[in-house]
Model the fold of this input.
Amino acid sequence: MSINRDFTKRACINFEKEAWHKSPADGVERLYLERDDAGETAIATTVVKFAPGSKFDQHTHDGGEEFLVLEGVFSDEFGSYPKGTYIRNPKGSAHNPYSESGCVLFVKLRQFQDSDIQSVKIDTNKEPWLPGLVDGLSVMPLHNFEAEHAALVKWKPNTIFNPHQHWGGEEILVLEGVFHDEFGAYPKGSWLRSPHLSQHRPFTKEEGALIFVKTGHLN
Done:
């Protein structure tokens, strides 16, 4: 099943309106945002839902695994991670994932650069916010490697950002509020992917917004 694999085109999905698909593990479902047709070894961007008490078989991350806990508490043999935890498990790592209370994750599989071997675990509930490039923006850097950058960005109501071009593309997941640009309005649950050298003028209205954003990884 190939979904949104033309990286020259803009993609936009609100996952709160999409259908869930069964995984090989009982109680674990997936919603596909981007995926090639390689089955269980696919390069994929998904939303994954663990029902309470469910688990996934032990597995090795042959191309790396990056995820953000959106709801609940995710666990493996190394610890338990609440909503807001950002994790990068590099190529060759392995674990036994499960959730006692249930959880929802935003997951990117097999998309690490070969030389990006850093393991990352960040509880964003405890990290400081830094000033953004314009008034009304706060930024929490999560990971930087060569041209690739991942961060949380908090937008106060009625904030306007500079028009800009995306070298290496841009990927956004709206976590809270409503994010806007000249092409539309994107409420919580919206996933946007803009290609290399695309451009836009983002802003917020009275709701403000919290987004997860990655840039530089789609060239």
